[in-house]
Every structure is written in structure tokens, then in C-alpha cells.
Amino acid sequence: MSSASTTDQVVHPPAPPLAPIAERAAAPSTLPAVTAGDLTWRPATSADAPALLTLRNDIAEADQEPYRETLDEIEELFTAPWRDVAADTLVGADADGALRAYAMVDTNPGDARTVRVFLAGGVHPTHRARGIGREVLAWQVARARQVLAASGKELPARLALYGEDSDPPAKVRLYARFGFAPRRFYADLRRDLAAPVPEVPLDGSLRLVPWSPELDEATRLAHNDAFRDHWGSEPRTAEAWTHGRSHHAPQWSFLVVDDAPDVDALLAGAETEDLVDEETAAALRAGEPLVVGYQMASRYDEDFPVRGYSFGYTDILGVRRAYRGRRVAVAALAAGMRAFAADGMQYASLDVDTENPSGAHGLYASLGYEKVSGSRMYSIEI
């Protein structure tokens, strides 16, 4: 037993104030040249989408990644209104015009707690071991630092990239060489839909409904509230929330609404965000519908042959903090599983942060989800 009194408190010194983001980002005035591999380098354009799709899928096959992409997904990379494609992308073409490497950096316009820049890139398997990957990543890091510096957001900052647990060792070593450390780990789970799906009654004025466009903004607000206490999560703006839905499956997506919320009780915690955030408070005062939980799903047919089975995919599952403990997530998830099964899918699939603070990993295990593979986020914290 400690000799300290149980009333003693450990006083931690306050964290030192952050230096200005323009200083912390250490952004270079010019970007490093990419010259390796005898390739011609230029920014990507929307006309590159088919070639970029081929390149990315060739890389995914070589690295045994458990997914493939579609042209619609690639075209979405060029249509996000907040992206500066000319400044934030790079492609390398060989003498025949075929793309052999690419680089992209991207940021989230809604970041309010940590300003982040995400890096994505790769080299075709036929052009590896030529120094291309090293130069491409150097360009990405430099450009990402410029984006951070230009953000003007005086917040903690992060450069981040994602990889599979099965990534080639050379790729992992390259990340480490540039200072990226594995920071977060994710589990790819699946659940056999041949097993019975539980019926989950909801209490009080809670009601399960199909997703609809009319409730989509209320769902965005629910998402931003649900993930306020999740590491690495940031608010989604309306434009970011609706962008990139080429695989969205509305017939597989379900919401839980509260038809008679205790508005006064919810608003009582608005100032401290104990129960609702400011956007939700405004919606409640305006009499807007209150979505309290959601299961948003997508269909990735191109992944079925890669994985060897068909599946419905839960992109995001969340519950407002004021409604946790009322089986809202289970009801929405079970509705999605029944919809998957009704359309002939063999499995329900999703990814979960292994350190999710809401206990989601335990929830999925209790419903029969099992790990299939894993991925991780590497980052440089600034």
C-alpha cells in the first residue's frame, strides 16, 4: 500500500504552450525534387483516374492488401472541394506514359482539436528498389508540412499515413526512416451471417428507421457528438460528410431517432458539451429531428473475390454520448446485419480501433465478430 494519504492528489504541471503552427510545422520554402526511376513527374489530373486506378490496384495486389478500388472511388479524389489537387498530388509516368508511382496529401477542413495531414502514395512493384519511394515520401512530408503551416490552426498537429499489418518490411522501414511511428492499431472483423441475428428492442421514445437523405444532416451531428471522445477523431463538416459515397448502401444503413427527447435536459449540458455539442443544441432549439445512433454501410463488390466471400460493410457505427447504455448501437448494427443477409451476403464486416473508448471491440465480440486482419496508423506528432 502506498504511504500517501488517499486524499493526496498528484498535481501535474501544465503542458507547455504550443509554439505557433507555422514554427512547429517546419515547412520548407521549396519542395524536394523527385528524380528517381527515370520517370516524368507532374501533378495528377482527373484525366489520370483510370491509370491511377490501375496503379493503385496493382500495388494492392502485390502487397496482398485485402481490398481493391473502383473508378468511382478514384474520381472522388479529384472532386473534394477543399483539395488543391494541383499542389497536393504527384504522379510519375514512364516513357510509355504509364503511371508507375504517385503521391497525395490531404487534410480535413473540419479539424478542431488536432490539425492533420494524411499521406498516401506508392510505387508499382516493377519499379521498386530504385529510390522512388524514398523521394516520393520526402516530397509528401515536405508538402504536408507546408499544408500544416498554411492552415493557421494553432492546434496540436499530426502527419499520418495508414498501412496494413502485412505490409512489406521495406515499406515499414521507410516509414521509420522518416520518423513515422505506429500510433494506432485497427482490427478488421467479420461475422458469419449464417448465425442468428439478435432482435434488439428499444426503450422509451427511441425508434429504429432506415437511413434517408432527410435525416442525413442529423446523422452527421450524431456522428460528431458520438466521436468527440475518440482518439484522433475530428468533426466532419457538411461537405466532408457527404463526399466520397460511391459505395454507400442506403438499403443497408439504419438510424435510431428519439421521437420525444428531453430537450431541456440535453440543453442543460450544452455549455460544457457534457451531453450535446453546440451544433446539436442549435438543432434541438430549432425542433430538428434527433438522431441518437447510426449504422452507415457500404457495398464493395470488387473486394468479394479478393477476400473469398461476400459481405456487407459497416463504415461507421456510433451512439450519442447521452444515449449510451441503451443498446442503440446493437439495434442499429443488428438491423444492418439482417439487411446484409437478406441480400445474400455471407458476412458482416467492419474495422474497429482496438483502443476504442466506448467498448466497441467487446460489443462486436459479443455479437460473434472475429478478427480477420489488421491495419495501423503511423504518425509524426507535431
UniProtKB/TrEMBL annotation:
Domain of life: Bacteria
UniProt key word Transmembrane: no
Keywords associated with the record: Acyltransferase, Transferase
Record carries keyword Transferase: yes
Boundaries of every N-acetyltransferase domain copy: 39-203, 233-382
Cited Pfam families: Acetyltransf_1 (PF00583)
Protein name: GNAT family N-acetyltransferase
